[in-house]
Amino acid sequence: MTRGHVVFITLLGVAVFLGLDFANSEPLNPYAAPPLMSLGSGLAATGAHCAAPPPTK
Amino acid sequence: MSTTTTMLPPSPPGFISRSLVLAGVATLLLGLAMVAGPRYGALLAIGMGFGLALEGFRFGFTGPWRRMILHRDASGLLAQLICIAIVAMFAFPMIAGNGAEIKGAHAPIGLAMIGGAFVFGASMQIVMGCGSGTLVNAGSGNAVAALALPFFAIGSFGGAYHLTWWTSLGSLPVVALGGTSGLAITLAGLAGIGVLAILFGAKDSWRIPRRYWLAVAALAGLAVLHLAVAGQPWGVVYGLGLWVAKGAVALGADLSGSPFWAAPGNAERITSSVLTDVTSLTDFGLIFGAALVAWWRAGLGSPIGVYPARAWIAVIIAGLFLGYSSRLAFGCNIGAFFSGIGTGSAHGWVWFVAAFAGSWVGIKLRPLLGLEARI
Fold first, then answer.
1. In this predicted structure, which of B9-13, B74-78, B103-107 has the lowest mean pLDDT?
2. CA–CA separation, B74 vs B243, rounded Å?
3. At what angle do helices A3-24 and B143-161 cross, to 10 degrees?
């Protein structure tokens, strides 16, 4: 087995996951998407981050 | 008369192959921007940039810590500190001047956070990959990282599931440095660690190789761009846990028992496309970017390392620990160390100390687990 096989399996796994997610998630809507840059947009950042404190019970 | 067989090195891809692949990458990025939104196309591109820089310049976080501990080679650690300092010099004014548009990687210090960072440090040395490193290594064909990755994701999901309970064991309020004084303290702290690294490092190991300087420039620029585009610093492990949460819900699991996954913001992320999640996009980009570099260099033909069965079992367990502990620690090398310190969070400093101590343990464990390759 070579590194190429590992890359192929990894990328295949990502592709399968993306396909399943596409089928099961809300449809994409580019017209409701946020602007390119958060900086200067006037909108609050809403993305999730691993450092965000957890919600209280 | 004897016959000699010569093994020729694999030839790199030709001009046409490279052009076609680059055109495919550009189409992918533009296509995502069109169907999902420009920000998401940009974030995938930034993630690819991270992957290109880390793999292209052979830079990372785990390896330099290992070399500092084992060989007293300070160069990689110094490069990391300089990179964080550059990011901080941009991030502090951006956060101070732009209110809610830009937020830092600010998290509380707590018992579970410290323990999580320690376990993460040990686990990343066993796998030889941190959050970004595991993705990059998997993308470039490292079998250990590729096996660890799904378990990293499962662990991340589990750690997030239990996060509220763990933080209830004892946690301080969030402490975040800000403004000019906060930046000065951060830069002084980084300089202080740099001086310690030089003092404890071997003679002349403070000299940073050119490829590290290039990596520092690329990563710092991309990190600041990420902050401006996403409104939040670079992170890795949230996305991995989200992928498993999505899979669990798709299979019928009820996550309402988890205060974390049932919280409105996270529940929304589960139902939304993964192509609109910030950390997922940069995670995919890390894999793609690393794969592109590995292919470009014709480095995919070499065989994978040979390890005993106990080593592969250790990789699976370490992968689970990587994911679980990184959620308790409020981030990995990227979310807590790089972005936490870079945006003024006190937890980033504590994370660094705990994870560095854990790394020492992980380095001792690695040969005992059979993970020194017998190629």
1. B9-13
2. 36
3. 30
CB contact under 8 A, B250 and A33: no
Token pair of B166 as six digits: 């763990």
The pLDDT of A3-26, averaged and rounded, is: 95
Please name the residues in contact with B262: beta carbons below 8 A apart, sequence gap of 6 or more.
Answer: B255, B256
Q: Is A15 in CB contact (< 8 Å) with chain B?
A: no
8 Å CB contact of A55 and B259: yes
Three-class DSSP category at B171: strand
Contacts of A48 (CB under 8 A, 6+ apart): B238, B242, B265, B266, B269, B277, B278, B279
| Residue type at A23 in one-letter notation | A
User: In a 3-state reduction of DSSP, which class is residue A2?
Assistant: strand
Which of B174, B230, B335 is the closest to A38 by Cβ?
B230
A39: chain B residues, CB-CB within 8 Å = 94, 98, 101-102, 227-229, 231
Question: Does residue B302 sit in helix, strand or coil?
Answer: coil
Distance CA B104, CA B101 (A): 10
User: Using CA atoms, how far apart are residues A8 and B294, in angstroms rounded to an integer?
Assistant: 12
Beta-carbon count within 10 A of B295 CB: 20
Spell out the SS3 assignment of B126-163: HHCCCHHHHHHHHHCCCHHHHHHHHHHHHHHHHHHHCH
Which of B311, B334, B326, B320 has its CA nearest to residue B358? B326
Asked whether the beta carbons of B24 and B180 are under 8 A apart, the reply is: no
**Residue whose token pair is 């590992």:** A6
Q: At what angle do helices B62-71 and B346-368 cross, to 10 degrees?
A: 70
CA B183 to chain centre: 23
Please give the angle made by the CA atoms of B282, B65 and B334, to the nearest 5 degrees: 20
Band (B375; pLDDT cuts 50, 70, 90): very low
In order, the DSSP letters of B173-196 are PP-B--HHHHHHHHHHHHHHHHHH
> How big is the CA angle at B341 (ends B92 and B116), to the nearest 5 degrees?
150
8-state DSSP, B110: B
Q: What is the pTM of this model?
A: 0.94
Shortest Cα–Cα distance, A56 to chain B (Å): 7
Q: pLDDT tens across B54-90, in order?
A: 999 999 999 999 999 999 999 999 999 999 999 999 9
Mean of pLDDT values over B260-285: 96
